[in-house]
Amino acid sequence: MATHSQGHTSPTTGEKIRRVVSAGSVTGDSVRNLSGDDLGNIQEIMLDVNDGSIAYAVLSFGGFLGMGDKLFAVPWQALTLVQDEEHFLLDVDKKKLENAPGFDKDNWPDFSDPSWGQGIHDHYGTTPYWQRGGQQGQGQQGAGGTARRGV
After folding, report:
1. What CATH number did the domain enclosing 70 receive?
2. Per residue of the chain (151 residues), what is the pLDDT tens digit?
3. Which residues of 46-80 are buried (b: 16+ CB within 10 A; e: fewer)?
4. Would 3 be classed as within a structural domain?
């Protein structure tokens, strides 16, 4: 698991100062739900190179010892970093994740297809990043007061 520092607090305003980490530092991080169930690990971070947005995290889930894992694209804004415990939070139960549109490691979808992306966002109840306009990187607060990364 990657180490995520707490960031710094401004001595004058008391506000948390933005942190920037490499995509590689979050690959391999675990993802859990609100019940604490292990939902898998982040395998990849998918970027929209046209506007610089982090579009999706690719989550590996459901296999045994790395075999038979199914991959799922999860909208980046659906994930919240729990810094104190160094994992990500995804507010879905295991059944919802199991029923999400998934793919295998040898047959990746076209992440730039808007209709495919809309289906992913519909499943997780999020607004597609390309429709949010102007919210890139605003650091919205996620569950439990932890900062949400890369909106």
Report:
1. 2.30.30.240
2. 454 544 555 566 667 667 777 888 889 999 999 999 999 999 999 999 998 889 999 999 876 655 668 999 999 999 999 877 789 999 999 999 988 999 988 999 999 999 999 999 999 999 999 988 654 443 333 333 333 344 3
3. bbbeeeebbbbbbbbbbeeeeeebbbbbbbbbbbb
4. no
